[in-house]
Amino acid sequence: AQSVTQPDIHITVSEGASLELRCNYSYGATPYLFWYVQSPGQGLQLLLKYFSGDTLVQGIKGFEAEFKRSQSSFNLRKPSVHWSDAAEYFCAVGGGYGGSQGNLIFGKGTKLSVKP
Amino acid sequence: EAQVTQNPRYLITVTGKKLTVTCSQNMNHEYMSWYRQDPGLGLRQIYYSMNVEVTDKGDVPEGYKVSRKEKRNFPLILESPSPNQTSLYFCASSLIGDSNQPQHFGDGTRLSIL
Fold it and tell me: Tell me: the pLDDT tens digits for A18-76?
């Protein structure tokens, strides 16, 4: 079955510390992978996406993610967290049939808190 | 400004009273979708549409209807709302092309069904 697992429900890091949010997926075909961020009261904003090619992808706000096919993972990283990064982060996988995302499958999210 | 607009943003209503949540996008996107977000469950897709007059069920379509009469609009209809449909709802849209296009999300509609 297709699924996305974000093992950490809630993570707290100190401002300036590095961050890694984990994402594992189960998908029968070539996955198209996304990370979204949701600030309180807001919709979801795309941070970055992976379709093919270089397995290390750069996104907005200083985030990056690495696709590891052997581990079925797509972890999100940031070298130095800012207080404004406090939000909820969602990993998602899509199949890309016909060029559309069709049924995009989301993980349950990881809430990030940032200590001053 | 490119955006996905949902209305209303908040609604409290009673069981059985039909309601419609509107969604409109100004980006000429072919693809539109509705999700509901519940604590601990993440986002789950309700319905999606690949183009005008083309709609299909997502993971949790029961109790919902949609229509796609125009490209820009994709309303979500709850014919007889029940308390288990109390949730935060998001509309999203994207292009359909040679590669996967990211979805653009509205700001959400919080529905409370009493």
Answer: 999 999 998 877 788 999 999 988 888 989 988 878 889 999 999 999 999 999 999 99
Q: Does residue A18 belong to the interface with chain B, where contact is any CB pair within 8 Å?
A: no
Residue in the block written with tokens 């449909």: B85
**Would you say residue A99 has pLDDT above 50?**
no
Q: By C-alpha distance, which of B87, B91, B86 is closest to B107?
A: B91
Query: Closest Cα of chain A to B76: distance in Å?
Result: 17
Q: What is the CA radius of gyration of chain B?
A: 13
Q: Is A34 on the interface with B (CB under 8 A)?
A: yes
- Chain B residues touching A9 at Cβ < 8 A: 40
CB under 8 Å to B73, separation ≥6 — which residues? B22, B23, B24
Tokens of B4: 């996905």
Single out the residue of B67, B61, B57 nearest to residue B20, CA to CA: B67
Burial code of A15-33, b = ≥16 C-beta within 10 A, e = fewer?
A: eeeebebbbbbebeeebbb
Is the CB of residue A53 less than 8 Å away from at least one CB of chain B?
Answer: no
How do beta strands B31-38 and B42-51 pair? antiparallel
